[in-house]
Amino acid sequence: MASITTNIHIGGSAFGKRLLAFLTHLATLSPTYKRITFYNSKSDEELAEMGMSRSDVPAKVFGARLYL
Fold first, then answer.
1. Burial level of 62, CB count in 10 A (0-12/13-18/19+)?
2. Which end of the chain is more exposed for a tag (fewer CB within 10 A), N or C?
């Protein structure tokens, strides 16, 4: 029988915290992240005026890159 053990410590070191903060910052610079935050800031009524619902947002943002 095979056994795999993974010990992941999040936020343990100062380096790890800086690295996580840097990667988070890089993610927020992404055009995809900006589109997601744009649609998430809209109310359901505003999305309906745009001809969309909340369930349409992933397809609109990710297009063919998202497979559900």
1. middle
2. N
